[in-house]
Amino acid sequence: MKKSLIVGILTLFIGVLHVNASSKVDEQTGLIIAPGFEEVKTNCTVCHSAKFITLQRGDKASWLSMIRWMQKTQGLWEFDKPLEETILTYLATNYPPGKASRRPNLKHTALPPNPYEKP
Ligand code: HEC
Question: What are the domain boundaries of the chain?
Fold first, then answer.
């Protein structure tokens, strides 16, 4: 009885450690360290804080629409296909829809024109 309790607590403890280990976060940016992290850190924290990313959620299509929007209106550069795929996979895997406390983002096409944008 006592032994199984101890084993139970140990298992729980190891489980908690494991969860922590599996979502290691970069101290500098707050981005989850996972495949694609370097590419995202290099390309996506130049103009704004990584908080823009870590507070956002989306599947590949909605991340892609955000990237396209930044490319069209904010001066974000083009990525070659493999790099774009790496970035999208990282984003959709680590910041997927449904894990957020807020509602999913509206598609940019559903939003009114940005009043701060130059004509
Ligand atoms: C060339 C500059 C630039 C780069 C590089 C850049 N962004 Fe942005 N991004 C912006 C600007 C400007 C905004 C809008 C800022 C604002 O609304 O105040 C923005 C906004 C965002 C938002 C918020 C959008 C929303 O609807 O809430 C996200 C998420 C985002 N960027 C992710 C990324 C990702 C991912 C990358 C890398 C692929 C990236 N950004 C690279 C300029 C950039």
Answer: 34-110
